[in-house]
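User: Assemble these into one structure.

Assistant: Restating your components, then the assembled model:
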Amino acid sequence: MKTFEYARAASPSDAVRRSGPGVMYLGGGTNLVDLMRLGVAQPDHLVDVSRLPLDAIEQAGDRLRIGAAVRNSDLAADPLVRARYPMLARAVLSGASGQVRNMATVAGNLLQRTRCAYFQDVSRPCNKRRPGSGCPAIDGDHENLAVLGRSDACVATHPSDMAVALAALDAEVHVTGPGGDRIIPMPGLHRLPGDAPERDTVLEPGDLITAVELPPPPPGASAYRKVRERASFAFALVSIAAVLDVRDGAVAGCRVALGGVAHAPWRAGRAEQAIIGGPATGEAFLAAAEAELDEARPLPRNAFKVPLARNLIVRTLEELTP
Amino acid sequence: MNRVEARVKVTGLATYAAEYPVEGVTYAYPVQSRIAKGRVTRVDASRALTMPGVLGVLSVEDPPELAEDADGELALFQSRDVAYRGQLIAVAVADTYENARAAADAVRVSYEPADHDVGLRADHPGLYRPEVVNPDYPADTERGDVEAGLAEAAATIDVTYTTPVEHNNPMEPHAALALWDGDGRLLVYDSTQGTSSDRETIAKTLGLPASHVRVVSRHVGGGFGCKGSTRPHAVLAALAARAVGRPVKVALTRQQMFDVTGYRTPTIQRLRLGADADGRLTALEHVAYEQSSTLVEFAEQTATPARVMYATPALRTAHRLVRLDVATPSWMRAPGECPGMYALESAMDELAYAAGLDPVELRVRNDPETEPESGLPFSSRNLVGCLREGARRFGWDRRDPEPGVRREGEWLVGTGVAASSYPARRRPSKAAATVRDGDFHVQVAAADIGTGARTALTRIAAETLGVAPDRVHVELGDSDLPDAPVAGGSMGTASWGSAVVRACEELMKNGSEGHADTTGEIATDSRLARHAFGAQFAEVRVSEVTGEVRVSRLLGVFAAGHIVDAKLARSQFIGGMTMGLGMALMEETHTDEEFGGFLRRDLAQYHVPACADVQHIEVVWLDEQDERLNPMGSKGIGEIGIVGTAAAIGNAVHHATGLRVRNLPITPAKILMARF
């Protein structure tokens, strides 16, 4: 591990002031410290933002504001979250382990890096870690990697469960930075790899996530389901966050976001559009799922994710149908 | 009886190899090859040597002195040839672990790479028949006419199974702390399954008399075979300590463990079986294809269970090996029996379906009178008893054999059975027993790698002496104690326990002390086939939506002689079956075809079962009296638990879905691509 300096930020603006080349913000450290030990992340300075007063979950009118430093365990256990956004609590609880969730923060969860085997191994090429070095996953170990929105430069997936639920909930990410404050609507925080896979998100250098704000929960029933070969403590092969509002047999509202399929939480807008206004039937859900997955470009060893995502969309929406 | 070292373990006082407080200790961090084949043309340590705290860099540029006949994996820095990616090619030594690692990163290695070949194939032109398979079985056997047997069979199957590279992954990473004294004597605190054999190997590798080396290993955080033989980290610590004149500690990272501490060879196994109209075998052929490195031949005995399991007039077993540009595979959790019985017991299930017979009944009908290959009588064999008892407890008689017809919502439900088997060997061991201050002190260089050996030996000694266990104190894990064989091959308790019983018996005769060496006793053991047997039953649920497989019930019934300690035995059986569940559904190391070496080298990517995967697990054993094994009448139980589990689960997946997934692990990907 490269030697680094450590400092605690006194306030969000102090943290931003300390930002600069070679500086990284430290939250719970559950991913960043691993990456530093692996040599993947090599910051000169760590600015600890985990103790900033950003650890509250507050009602703001009919919205819910979740501080960036709220620990994942606290988020999942929060009575307001459980009552109004049970899908979010479920998504958080399906991730990692109890010990990791006790440490991990909301912002850190959003900004965790891919678990692609090549990205995490500095002795092998990776366009995300070392731009231009190549992507061996495309011809190699890509079983767990992306089928949607991938590029020839990168087939990594974003590993978060929480982010998938946030994408379905139209969450807004509050950011402060050298350029001032801004709000980024999910799933717009994360970007597709294109020819710049080294950039996971649209954040600019020095940007600090301060909160995630949830609009009122969408009407209807919701669910989060995660598929994995090990029953616990495993990243999703594919996961789904879905909301379905059926009135008089017709779909009034539908939201679907997928995890484990792309470089970002994948909001299945095409499927949603196909479903809204139509009948809440398995045939309609299947047609919508197939429309969404039409643009999937699987690799030889992750082709299973296409039928898996299709089945998951159909079954989850069927279960949400009253 | 609780584990005698339970308190020191749960309070953190148990000292593991890397934890011994040693004054002036320094740290070594290895440099690993980044090519899979070729030559190291230059190791440039000039920058590393100027870094803070750095005491030295060892490499092939100035090869350390080692015995010329050192094992290929232990002959560190002797050759410029690279045998596999990840091989240790240099080491940096510094005052702190961090400085050593930084220096290792700063060592510049130049290579002359060559084309590598890391892929095992059943049609590989380099395949050959090894002289023997681990430890010393013939590679091939043939009795009767397999082709004729298949030709006359009423039902036949011809199927190929594969198992992937798997890694042992004990919780405690390999570590060693080496100290030389002024007289050229070496003390190594090592994480090992056997201090006597580790001392021998380290001494031989360094060209020292064994009397100049001492290995201490009082507590070991699991081994599962990968600490059964000396690993390069121990030699690395000794060489580095000799070079810098200070004690040196080496603690491998999880990733380094994947590279240099052994693994289970991938296997390709072809099974051809035939049965007559009554379900009696007419032929059984088991051919296993496996890999080893270019450095050392390790040939896993994968097809040997077929020589033990079933009566057949025609039996052929064969092993073919290819030497690839990979690390040397080694012992892992029931080498041979575990992958071999996965294939054989899956094939028996397929044959049961082909013959229209119940899978329990098929096994019962083919239970042999004597060991099929050798013709030797069994010391005891209760496979049929295990199958019958397991069937009764599991509710097997209510099973509808039709596959793919039971459903709970989206979950398809099925059950499967498989047999377990593991040899019941023992090896010569020494032990000593003395009386001091009214207590009994037993010494033997055994290893407790988490199994509870210390506790089992305490109990064996107490029962022999006729005293309460709390008056017996067992000292183990030190090569200065009476020589003992490795904790492996499920023969630790049988070997050490025999010596402990004899030492205690002598003590009782003379009232003060007893010394035992069972070499002579074991040499006169009668020629018998000695094996433990078992039957495992699994119930699985397979999602037709996601392809996920969840094991809702596991039952193991074992016949393993006298069970020395019920609590320890239950833990061992359950542990083995849980590892078998991992083998069935998740464990897999990926070989990197492009760059060589392994991928997914950590526990976030190499999945072993979590508690949530083990929903209901039950273990029972049959009372088995077998006087001809050893003074305890015990059979080893360290490994039989894993043997057969994967087949039982795979057979249950077939029963649930109608699908035969013949390539482990059985993942959602394979289920989805085959079915949906």
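The radius of gyration of chain A is 19 Å.
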